């Protein structure tokens, strides 16, 4: 297996409009989820860099589509979060449009890493995103984020609850526990990303 050095990931550029994105070759994996679910922190944990993706206690921190390059032709994308009540509705609608536009039109997007706070998984907008991804044939990995906030037995209960609910969607998803602050699930995340990368390299899909 081709081992990727995630710690060598570099920031490329940010865009506010899909049509402005200048990267055409290669494939992308995007981190998506409710605002404050821990997307930017997860990218920092994955790459073992403290400030690669900007994170914040204030929800709505990420308002652009941020591109990072793991290796030539393989990018990680940090998307703005959706659905936070305290973000003004004008901005919320703008962000929503950017996210859906990106999901529906970006042919380089092959996989989504969907982060859901383990205490509130599969909320309405998460289910909508899952359906859009299924419709557009984008693979999904679900991370139950901030799992350090729950005791181990509670983590298991949440994990099985999510798996059971997902079974009803009759599609196969991978689900894993994740914590950026306690470094839980990072090895598994890397393995999953490696597999996707290998798959697209082998298919010479770009
Ligand atoms: N306890 C705990 N807190 C976390 C974890 N990951 C992120 N946080 C905290 O959650 C808050 C939001 O993290 P971000 O990474 O900025 O979240 P985001 O999903 O990128 O947010 P937006 O950019 O607003 O969409 C920050 O205060 C982080 O420190 C985690 O694994 N455990
Ligand atoms: Mg963010």
From TrEMBL:
InterPro entries per UniProt: G_ENGB_dom, GTP-bd, GTP-bd_ribosome_bio_YsxC, P-loop_NTPase
Q: Which GO terms describe its molecular function?
A: GTP binding; metal ion binding
Q: Name one GO biological process term.
A: division septum assembly
CDD domains from the UniProt entry:
YihA_EngB
Gene3D superfamilies registered for this protein in UniProt: P-loop containing nucleotide triphosphate hydrolases (3.40.50.300)
Per UniProt, the keywords (alphabetical) are: Cell cycle, Cell division, GTP-binding, Magnesium, Metal-binding, Nucleotide-binding, Septation
Q: Output the superkingdom of the source species.
A: Bacteria
Can you supply one Gene Ontology CC term for this chain's record? cytosol
The UniProt entry, under SUPFAM superfamilies, shows:
P-loop containing nucleoside triphosphate hydrolases
One short Pfam name that applies is MMR_HSR1
Which cofactor is recorded for it? Mg(2+)
Query: Start and end of every EngB-type G domain?
Result: 25-199
Q: Which family does it belong to?
A: Belongs to the TRAFAC class TrmE-Era-EngA-EngB-Septin-like GTPase superfamily. EngB GTPase family.
Matching entries from HAMAP family are given as:
GTPase_EngB
Q: What NCBIfam families does the record tag this protein with?
A: GTPase_YsxC
Briefly state the protein's biological role.
Necessary for normal cell division and for the maintenance of normal septation.
Q: What is this protein called?
A: Probable GTP-binding protein EngB
| Organism from which the protein derives | Buchnera aphidicola (Brevicoryne brassicae)
């Amino acid at each position: 297996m081709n081992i990727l050095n995630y710690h060598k990931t570099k920031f490329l550029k940010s865009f506010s409009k899909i049509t402005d994105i200048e990267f055409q070759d290669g494939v992308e994996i995007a981190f998506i989820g409710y605002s404050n679910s821990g997307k930017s922190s997860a990218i920092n944990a994955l790459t073992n860099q403290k400030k690669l993706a900007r994170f914040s206690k204030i929800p709505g921190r990420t308002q652009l589509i941020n591109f990072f390059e793991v290796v030539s032709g393989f990018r990680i994308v940090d998307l703005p979060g959706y659905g936070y009540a305290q973000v003004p509705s004008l901005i919320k609608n703008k962000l929503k449009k950017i996210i859906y536009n990106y999901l529906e039109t970006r042919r380089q997007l092959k996989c989504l890493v969907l982060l859901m706070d383990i205490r509130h998984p599969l909320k309405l907008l998460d289910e909508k995103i899952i359906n859009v991804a299924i419709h557009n044939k984008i693979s999904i990995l679900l991370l139950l984020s901030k799992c350090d906030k729950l005791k181990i037995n509670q983590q298991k209960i949440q994990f099985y609850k999510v798996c059971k609910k997902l079974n009803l969607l009759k599609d196969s998803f991978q689900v894993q526990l994740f914590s950026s602050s306690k470094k839980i699930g990072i090895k598994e995340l890397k393995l999953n990303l490696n597999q996707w990368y290998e798959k697209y390299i082998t298919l010479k899909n770009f």
